[in-house]
Design goal:
The protein is of the alpha/beta class and 283 residues long. It is built from 8 helices and 10 strands. 30% of the residues are buried.
Amino acid sequence: MARSRKSAFDDLLVIASELPWQVSLGLAVISLLVLHGLAAAFAAAPTATTVADMGGAVIHQIIHVGALLAQFVVPPGFLIGAAASYLKRSRSIQLLDNTRTAQGPAVASLTWREFESLVAEGFRQRGFKVTEKGGAAPDGGVDLILARGTERFLVQCKQWRAQQVPVTIVRELYGVMAAQHAAGGYVVTSGRFTKDAIEFAEGRNIELIDGKRLPELLRKPESSATTSPNRPASTGGSRTSTPTCPRCQEPMVARVAKRGSSRGSEFWGCSRYPKCTATLAKT
């Protein structure tokens, strides 16, 4: 049996549905205006009196027809993608609200895809820009990419009801973090982590969020300021005391120097970075 191939329109729908719905909607309007204007600008074919003129006239006509047809494909593609993105975001918000009020299913009974959407929405409401990687199989590599300012964080979601998340999963994330030069990472599970996993994450800018700490991520922020968890600074074990920023009085988070003579050493940085660049030495 021949393998079905995706069309360019299918690829457009996938891209548009992964973007924030406001962005896809804006691109639908912009592409319609641009393509319509391009088709109108090339509507009148130039008079061809020589062979060279004929070549130019053919190119002129190709642009006109291409733009004319594209305006019935590209803008609708972005529009459909915007609708899909809006519905997806609405479902994840509703899922998070229901989980907070215990009106929906228990976290342990969610599918792996629902669990990822729930975790993604929890990070969004704490100020992160979230890209959901998805995938055909559950727990396949990095599930979410978080962004705040110039920093990127990687997230693996493990919807394991009975098993403990082993150290191999944390090692896997750490390897991807190094390969992609990520600032930190999270492993989120509704279950628990093994002792080896907790020990490995210690001091490696990986935060482990287990079933007991998950409500902290899903809890509604008390203010517009970003609340914990801000930045991987601890594991699922005990936490160290967190200093307050000397400039803006916001909590600070542990960071690792990426360059310079102090590369690899830890320090405290303001959680409002890059708006606030205050740092403190970590002792």
